[in-house]
Design brief:
By secondary structure, this protein is an alpha+beta fold. The chain is built from six helices and six strands; from the N terminus they run βββαββαβαααα. The longest helix is centred in the C-terminal third of the chain and has 32 residues.
Length: about 280
């Protein structure tokens, strides 16, 4: 009896699966892989006031993104539909906040684990329309000779090399951050000086941090002294030997202190006896 013939991935098969509110795109890691992976995609529909960085008519929302898939892979995958402006990977759906945060190479790095979601923003609305009309005959290949994906030990080596910090780059990033911070503080101080003593529309005057007697920042020693003073005040207000358990505790502590002193005296006397010597001259 002859065995049934197997259909290989090289054969053209039309993938025309439609999700309830979107569409499906099949992908695979490389040409050698026989199994497919499906990306579930729909048009991103959120009010622009809530998510201004992802316009409704130019953004695709992608789920079931595998761990080996990068922003470059998704940008290359959807480049056939139009010019891609940006690709953002996240652990779960949420607002975009790239413009509000400081993009750092060394600080606040987040490692995404497991399957992720992605937001693909096109430069024109025609990119979304072209993506929605996709009818691939075979799955898209993510890892190619021109753009290979690193996995296994190669990825571990790349991750380890990324953890090695260049002191000059780190110093340059810290300097630029501090310059931005100093500029921001200077702008806030200038604005506070302009608003100081100026009443608003209702006649109220805003009280700023800088007044006639500006506060002096506390040091660590000053904070310790303040804590000690607070403890002393609490101890003075506390009633001693007011409750029966307080009376028992004070007696127990007094007896323990007497025993401790008695043992210390015994050791001192024994030491003096051991050091005593006969000296006739």
């Amino acid at each position: 009896m002859a065995a049934p013939e197997c259909k290989h991935a090289s054969q053209e098969v039309r993938f025309n699966f439609r999700a309830p509110e979107g569409f499906v795109v099949p992908v695979k890691f490389s040409d050698k892989q026989l199994s497919y992976h499906y990306l579930y995609i729909k048009e991103h529909r959120v009010r622009e006031s809530v998510d201004s960085e992802r316009p409704q008519d130019r953004t695709l929302f992608v789920v079931n993104v595998p761990t080996y898939c990068t922003e470059t892979c998704l940008s290359k995958l959807f480049s056939c539909c139009g010019q891609v402006q940006s690709v953002e990977l996240q652990q779960k759906p949420g607002r975009g906040g790239k413009s509000e945060t400081h993009n750092s190479k060394f600080f606040n790095l987040k490692t995404l684990k497991g399957f992720r979601v992605a937001y693909v923003v096109f430069k024109s609305p025609s990119g979304v329309a072209a993506a929605k009309s996709l009818k691939p005959k075979k799955p898209f290949v993510l890892s190619t000779a021109e753009c290979p994906l690193k996995t296994g030990i190669q990825k571990w080596i790349a991750d380890y090399e990324a953890t090695i910090v260049d002191p000059e780059e780190l110093q340059a990033e810290v300097d630029s951050y501090m310059q931005e911070y100093d500029q921001k503080v200077a702008e806030e101080e200038a604005k506070a000086e302009e608003e100081e003593g100026v009443p608003d529309e209702e006649g109220w005057i805003k009280v700023t941090r800088k007044g006639r007697r500006p506060g002096i920042p506390r040091t660590e020693a000053a904070n310790i002294r303040a804590v000690e003073r607070e403890k002393k005040k609490r101890a003075q207000k506390e009633l001693l030997n007011f409750y029966a358990w307080q009376h028992r505790e004070s007696k127990r502590e007094y007896i323990a202190e007497l025993r401790k002193k008695f043992e210390e005296d015994k050791q001192r006397i024994a030491l003096m006896r051991a050091q005593r010597k006969f000296r006739p001259y």
